[in-house]
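Continuing the series of single-chain predictions for the mutant panel. This is the parent chain; the variants come on the following pages.
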Amino acid sequence: MFEIDQTHDPKLQSWVESANVAGCDFPIQNLPFGLFSNKPGAAPRIGVAIGDKVLDLRMAALVSSDDMNALMNATPAQRANLRRAISTGLARGSDQQKDWERALLDQSAVTMHVPCRINDYTDFYTSINHATTVGKQFRPDNPLLPNYQWVPIGYHGRASSINVSGTDFKRPKGQTKAPDATVPMVGPCKRLDYELELGWFVAQGNAQGDAIPITDAESHLFGVALFNDWSARDIQGWEYQPLGPFLAKNFASTLSPWMVTMEALAPFRDAFTRPGADPQPLPYLDSAENRLRGAFSITLEVLLLTPKMQAAGKAAQRISLTNAANAAYWTPAQLVAHHTVNGCNLQTGDLFGSGTLSGPTPQEAGSLMELSAGGKQPIALPDGEQRTFLEDGDTVIFRGWCERAGAARIGFGECRATVLAAAV
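Parent structure:
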């Protein structure tokens, strides 16, 4: 597991003054990676966020190419050395300041892209709170299926429709069937929802046939971003049996543009525990280190901005707040170990969605399906509006951050997109 070192020192400050502002998402202790371009049509370049700036790594002579996946495929030791070099160069008093100032760009002046080449995408289902709440809507007497506490449930998703934050999308169409109808109909989704997730990125892969033991699993992860796996609940309800999600999930997903690295997360680890009455993980999903600090304390916030709010000049309103450590029933290391126990070969850049991260209380729900009890109890917004599911023009914004005593606060930036009307 990645350890705390001098790059995490909460007293460390940068000569980039915006990185030293209290509450900044991107202080020098963070240093997340992303792909950006500063000219229309230009090839994306590798950057690191620092305050309100982007450090162009190739211009700063820290990398020799702009292939993010090649960087992610480096060994953990090589990645740690790169982090230390970036931290040293950006630290106040650094000899690199004069040279690196020319490699800084304003974040507001660049275009961000999906942060790496995503080869494959697996969406997991790691929140037992979400699984139970949703299960009650379909199976009141048996909400949690018997395999849930034994197996990290997941399905193979669609990588081609994953977009970077700020990319809006059209309301999907598909088949639905009303309970009293004899035949299904095709039309725009009427129960469009967001899903509050984290997206974990694979670093080095593994050879086909070689399982990754849980003790090595985290060395195969590069970092994490905010992830919104939009869902068409009415389409899903009709099509998901017997094989699971299809058109209800493959039309759009949204990623925040910065990958917060495993190294940056080192101060924000938590113990992974299960209630005593629950089944404990099977041996291939268990280790002393995973139990001691396999979970991550990441605060997650959902905000909604409606067209009416926007027209009135009002800010987006928080509708949910939770923490990943309280929401996830499985750790990232367990996801890697389970995904490969059958010999599946992961590739650099593969994405693991956490599944909807809902905390233990109703206010911590990670979807409108939970907040509105399947559409039966509309949620009230401060301006008098109500929502059961998303309407055209609604903008959903995710924010995330880590903070605790003795460590510098780090953030994830925003993950946002607006729902457009369905295609004619």
